[in-house]
Specification:
β3 (about 50-60) and β4 form a beta hairpin. This protein has helices spanning about 10-15, 130-140, and strands at about 25-30, 35-45, 50-60, 65-75, 80-85, 110, 120. The protein is mainly β. It contains two helices and seven strands.
């Protein structure tokens, strides 16, 4: 099972962009108790968006393999707080069956701030360090998220 100490190096590396301490929680998956869910919330001040947060969910199986992830950067929890999200979560309609299709299905990127319905392929952001590196760029440069393909 993952441990909170597994995240210490990332917390140290990105500490300079955090506006308050990070919330970390490890719990059993309520749907499948053999799995573990890591829940982390990072808090940032953005020169463009103001106070933002990165809500992280990572699901691990009993062998500590990451089986699912969701990294959601948002202005707040109210609509349209969405800035960007990278996920491989299940959706009722598989992404490759959508009219525009997604070649990276199930990995996808909700890339348009304020509109979670729009998706594009996600080839590179599949772990916490990668998403923190992207968010860090926009926090440090005080610029809006540009929906770029990474």
């Amino acid at each position: 099972m993952p441990k909170l100490t597994d995240y210490a190096a990332l917390l140290t590396r990105f500490n300079s962009i955090l506006r308050q301490p990070t919330d970390l929680l490890i719990e059993d998956d309520p749907i499948n108790p053999d799995n573990t869910v890591i829940k982390i919330t990072f808090y940032f001040d953005s020169g463009f968006y103001g106070e933002t947060q990165l809500r992280v969910r990572e699901w691990f199986d009993k062998n500590d393999n990451k089986i699912q992830y969701r990294y959601s950067w948002e202005k707040n929890r109210k609509k349209p707080g969405h800035i960007s999200a990278w996920e491989n979560e299940y959706h009722f309609v598989p992404h490759h069956m959508l009219p525009e299709g997604l070649k990276s299905d199930p990995h996808h990127h909700h890339h348009v701030p304020g509109d979670r319905a729009q998706l594009q392929d996600n080839w590179t952001i599949r772990d916490l360090e990668s998403v923190l590196t992207v968010v860090e760029e926009f926090i440090r440069e005080n610029k809006p998220y540009d929906s770029k393909m990474l």
